[in-house]
Model the fold of this input.
Amino acid sequence: MKPMNESHLAILRRHMVEMIAIHADLASDEIGRAVLDERVLAAMRKVPRHLFVPAPLAPYAYQDTPLPIGFDKTISQPFIVALMTDLLFPQPSEKVLEVGTGLGYQTAVLAELAGQVWSIEIVEEFAGVARELLQQLGYTDIKIREGDGSRGWREHAPFDKILVTAAADKVPAALLDQLKQSGRLVMPIGPEEMQRLTVIEKGADGQTQIRELLPVRFSRLETVT
Done:
């Protein structure tokens, strides 16, 4: 059988986004609305997810499911990527910090929507692959470094938005410190069996408001002691 060409892959991406839209409608009671931001959906239609998974899994890249990428990690389900991006609401003028680069798929989606993206990955091999791939795809407003994401990236703080793609029992204090006033942070919060996708908004007075949404299951945020 011939390999799929770009036309086939574009059709699969459109189908993936249609499935995301259905999933959003079904989860509308939990997420507060039935339709995700069209800017987010457009980014999902554009970014080639099949390049961000191990080659043997590329034929499955546009199914609405997480996939293993090595080191006991996964690339998130497309619906969850879209939802977290939608909840973050990144804007073209904003600086975004991502904690947990993986192979760079969520990073690329963020780069389609934000002004600048800084991303931290604790697995050195992932960071190297993501950096090279994102450069090849022409993303010039992304900076990636290896390290403990729970500490943030103080040299470039404060950030308008922060996205954490791993779960913790509470938001790391350093990330809250590096979030701008009137900024927003999205991450899964809770123990492994009770995680909730959570939106934290930091007011002009520095106080935070927390909104818990649907249950999710993410790997734990790794830290370096």
Observations:
- The CA atoms of residues 13 and 48 lie 8 Å apart.
